TrEMBL record:
Family (UniProt): Belongs to the UPF0237 family.
InterPro entries the record matches: ACT-like_dom_sf, ACT_dom, UPF0237/GcvR_regulator, UPF0237_ACT
Pfam family, one: ACT_6
Protein name in UniProt: UPF0237 protein IAA60_08160
Alphabetized SUPFAM superfamilies for the sequence: ACT-like
Source species: Candidatus Ornithomonoglobus intestinigallinarum
Domain of life of the native organism: Bacteria
Lineage: Bacteria, Bacillati, Bacillota, Clostridia, Candidatus Ornithomonoglobus
Matches recorded under HAMAP family: UPF0237
């Protein structure tokens, strides 16, 4: 199963490390990543493979929400098929 992770928040040190660390702990593989900073706003989109994760989807989301709360970020994780169907024109 693939998922799309979006991260938005005030730019600060360690965002990528914390998010990728949480995914690593769940045995989730990062397939693609794009990040940018607009003034002081950090944005990142990741495509991840959850197929070998030791956590279910809710567990992965829980790990990411813990990072979001700790760092004052907005983190959303959606199954790739749902993300794709929501963003089709």
């Amino acid at each position: 199963m693939k998922a799309v992770v979006t991260v938005v928040g005030k730019d600060t040190k360690g965002i990528i490390a914390k998010v990728s660390g949480a995914l690593y702990e769940a045995n989730v593989n990062i397939l693609d990543i794009s990040q940018t900073i607009m003034q002081d706003l950090f944005t990142m989109i990741m495509l991840v493979d959850c197929g070998e994760s030791k956590d279910d989807f809710a567990g992965i989301d829980g790990r990411l929400q813990a990072v979001a709360e700790e760092m004052g970020l907005s983190i959303r994780v959606q199954r790739e098929e749902i993300f794709s169907s929501m963003h089709k024109i």
